[in-house]
Amino acid sequence: MGVALAEMRVCLYLEAENVVARSGFRTAFARHLQALHKMGIPVTTDPSDSSFDILHVHWFGPRSLYYLKRAKQQGKIVIAHAHSIGAYDFRDSFTLSNTFAPLYEKYLNYFYELSDAICTPSEHAKRLLQAQGITKPIYVVSNGVDLERFKFDAQAREKYRQRLGLKHFTVFCAGNVIPRKGVLDFLEVARRLPHFDFVWFGHVWSRLLAFDIEMHQALDERPPNVKLPGFIEDAPGAFSAGDLLFYPSYGETHGLVLFEAAALFRPLVLRDLPEYSLAGFRDGENCLMGKSVDDFCQKILYLANDAALRERLIQEAYRLAEANSLERVGHQLRRLYQALLEGRTL
Q1: Do domains 5-144+325-341 and 154-323 have the same CATH topology?
Q2: Average model confidence (pLDDT) across the chain
Q3: d(Cα 111, Cα 135) in Å, to the nearest integer?
Q4: Class of the CATH domain delimited by 5-144+325-341
Q5: Is the Cβ–Cβ distance between 146 and 297 less than 8 Å?
Q6: Is 11 helix (H, G, I), strand (E, B) or coil?
Q7: What is the CATH architecture of 154-323?
Q8: How does residue 1 score in pLDDT terms, banded at 50, 70 and 90?
């Protein structure tokens, strides 16, 4: 298309921003916006302004579909950001999600195939998309971690510990309270470790939207050492109140909270999933991994009682946070945009 890097203008678009305000979609969109600003790339968030060269959509709703098709008709480059893979991350989330997962995945594949290229936040997500038969080129670009914002804050730690009534070694998790995130295992581990405090930061959806009999019963009967403060905007401060991130999710395309906790020098206990290995997490090297409630309890106890082990793991995990910094993401996006405008692949 002959557009010079200095003249390139990008539209980063997130449909229904208020609806997804407490989701990873919104976080990734905001981080990418920051990353582009750091690179000095002119960017708009208004797709009705047609003066851009590249449309990079972060959701897949009807307005996104409209602007995607319009941009293609105008001869512009379109990138679809695949935060969601389909049935893989849709199942065990919201009411009737398992019923509609195949249809949901079919629509996503249709949407992604309309683009010129697809971005996705991890190598694992890329492989899943390829296995579904996606033919468009797929590029891995991290959602990014703002290392200037995600810094451990001792004052914030004390503020949130006091606000939440935390008096003991504190295990925390973050994310929407849905079955796929491993809520049941989190609650059971808390029950078995009553001398620790447990906190889950994240939105608890109404039973109408996220109905799961077993999960809601477990939440209603949760042990007294579990706190559910809901979504907290000040994630760095809230996470600083914790001593260890326990992330029992059954499947993630990126798991941004892992990198955020690593940036705050919080040790990590994760479910042993192949996607984490692809992202650079290594059991015993920069985190501890388990496959069962027994494993998780054992790993948490190891870390709680071994300061030297915690220190070794957090120093190594911080390297992964650095590898996902906004500066790195900005450089990745700039290289990708320029290559697409020049008609080449990376």
Answers
A1: yes
A2: 90
A3: 12
A4: alpha beta
A5: no
A6: strand
A7: 3-Layer(aba) Sandwich (3.40)
A8: very low
